[in-house]
Specification:
Distance between the termini: 62 Å
Radius of gyration: 31 Å
Strand content: 5-15%
């Protein structure tokens, strides 16, 4: 911060409310004091509600008596003749008026500097805007944990950060986004609650963390967010409320869909919310992603419910992720492309699934899960749990059941649940649907051959006979590809790499006809390379 003041005469410190901007500014002022012969002066604009009174407030903070004439000009003349640091705190509700003062300040030659705190930058020439990040919450020795420990000890002398409670405190601080105000309010409750109890009640954080000793607009966590919310225009408020339905990160297409806006409008409004420190931006795999701090998201959900728009927003959220998932085919084996494209949206897909399931819309929930199934290959336990819920909700005769069971097999193999895999195989073999029978026989044949290369042939032969009777179409093609793939695997077990390579190539060609790639088609390519080497 001091380095920035050495290069720029106007530095704006931006961050969400409750992040500690004032404290940091005062700390910088203390460090600057020996280097400013005319002192460091502090002006708090919190009580100023009329922009026309900004010059008078600044003059008062500088202990400058104004005379008739332009008050801003008098301030600038006074400051230009000195070497001082002027700290102007809490400017967000008077951004335009402070920006005008700051712009004229920078244009006037001199050695004095201005440090302002605001939830958004002024966007004037000569300004250096620095965003203050939340406190670190990376581990149980992070700055946020230490702050909690200090504040908790101050209100409860018996409280001590220990090996036993540090992990819980760290989890609590993560839930509070490393926000100093929220952490201090939580620590103040240690007079009557333990960290474990605080963490257990965090879903009702605004009631839990109410009260405190700060000035009026920061006495509760909710009040500081009210302050930010009321500074937004109606469109910004509506979008912020809609963003409350997201879990984790999201992209601009999702914002447009959930808020019901054109994408270009959504871009402008999200950009405005980022400028006001209510939304954060990050890059994941070369794509822009956005998120709300969890506390802000909880506040947005509360506002969304109060406005009566929660159901519509959640329906649009579900519709958006269902449409995205169904860009990928519902198949017996998941589409690999979906993993890269939908992977960052896993948390939102689960939230959309939960919404559909909560309304007993099991067909919708199942299609959402199947379109995004490959996303859960890195989280197989969660994928199995969601599939189980779908299978319990669907009618036994629903066409989606077979797809879910086949995808379950893939996930059970990832978690090495042999008993469950055997149950899936039995279900497939006993199904009246010949397509399911093919998959059951092929999977069983592969399991037998992997244990003993001389076994599995009968199962594969029976599967081939049934597969030939299937009506032409994508399902039959995929079944044929899997059959050739497993036959090739059996050939490798029998030390027949030339036969294996021939069968692998047939499997690859069949899969290519479908226009999408699955886990086993990727394995087929890898195995074909190994066969070539052999």
């Amino acid at each position: 911060m001091r380095e920035a003041l050495g290069s720029f005469r106007l530095v704006t410190l931006t961050a969400a409310g409750g992040t500690g901007k004032t404290r940091v500014a005062l700390a910088v002022g203390e460090e600057e004091l020996p280097h400013r012969p005319d002192g460091v002066w502090f002006v708090d604009l919190t009580p100023v509600s009329d922009g026309a009174l900004v010059p008078a407030a600044v003059a008062s903070g500088l202990e400058l008596s104004l005379v008739t004439g332009d008050p801003t000009e008098q301030i600038l003349e006074y400051v230009a003749a000195k070497n001082l640091l002027l700290i102007v705190d809490n400017c967000e509700h008077l951004v335009d008026e402070v920006a005008e003062l700051a712009e004229r300040f920078v244009a006037r030659p001199g050695t004095s500097a201005m440090l302002a705190t605001s939830r958004e930058r002024f966007d004037v020439d000569g300004e250096q805007a620095l965003r203050l990040p939340p406190l670190s919450v990376d581990d149980d020795a992070a700055a946020a944990v230490e702050l909690f420990g200090q504040r908790a000890s101050a209100v409860n002398s018996s409280f001590v950060l220990s090996v036993e409670n540090r992990a819980v405190v760290a989890d609590l601080c993560r839930q509070l986004d490393g926000m100093p105000l929220a952490i201090e309010l939580a620590a103040a409750r240690c007079t009557v609650m333990t960290p474990v109890e605080l963490l257990a009640g965090i879903e009702d954080r605004f009631r839990l963390l109410g009260g405190g000793r700060r000035r009026q607009r920061q006495r509760t966590l909710e009040a500081t967010l009210d302050w930010s919310y009321e500074l937004l225009d109606a469109d910004e408020q509506a979008v912020l409320r809609a963003l409350g339905v997201f879990v984790g990160t999201f992209d601009l297409d999702a914002v447009a869909a959930v808020s019901g806006l054109a994408r270009a409008v959504a871009v402008e409004l999200v950009d405005s919310l980022i400028a006001k420190s209510l939304v954060t931006h990050e890059e994941v795999g070369g794509r822009s992603r956005f998120r709300l701090f969890e506390t802000t998201a909880a506040y947005a959900r509360q506002r969304l419910a109060a406005a009566g728009d929660a159901k519509d927003a959640r329906d649009r959220h579900l519709d958006h992720y269902l449409e995205r998932a169904l860009r990928h085919p519902i198949a017996m084996w998941a589409d690999l492309e979906a993993r890269d494209l939908l992977g960052p949206d896993r948390a939102n897909i689960v939230a959309a699934f939960d919404w559909a399931a909560g309304q007993q819309r099991w067909s919708t929930a199942s299609r959402l899960l199947l379109g995004a199934f490959t996303v859960f290959c890195a989280h197989p336990t969660q994928g199995l749990e969601l599939a189980d819920r779908c299978l319990e909700g669907l009618d036994d005769g629903d066409d989606l059941v077979g797809y879910l069971v086949c995808n379950q097999y893939w996930l059970t193999s990832l978690v090495v649940d042999h008993a469950r895999s055997a149950g899936v195989i039995r279900w497939l073999q006993q199904s009246p649907d010949p397509l399911h029978q093919v998959y059951g026989l092929v999977i069983r044949g592969n399991a037998l051959a992997a244990a003993d290369a001389s076994r599995g042939g009968e199962e594969l032969a029976e599967a081939a006979e049934i597969q030939r009777r299937l009506p032409p179409g994508p399902d039959a093609t995929q079944a044929a590809a899997l059959l050739q793939f497993v036959a090739a695997f059996r050939a490798t077990y029998q030390d027949l790499p030339h036969l294996a390579l021939e069968q692998m190539q047939v499997a690859i060609d069949l899969q290519d006809e479908l226009g999408f790639h699955t886990e086993f088609s990727a394995l087929a390519r890898q195995s074909a390379s190994i066969c070539c080497l052999l």
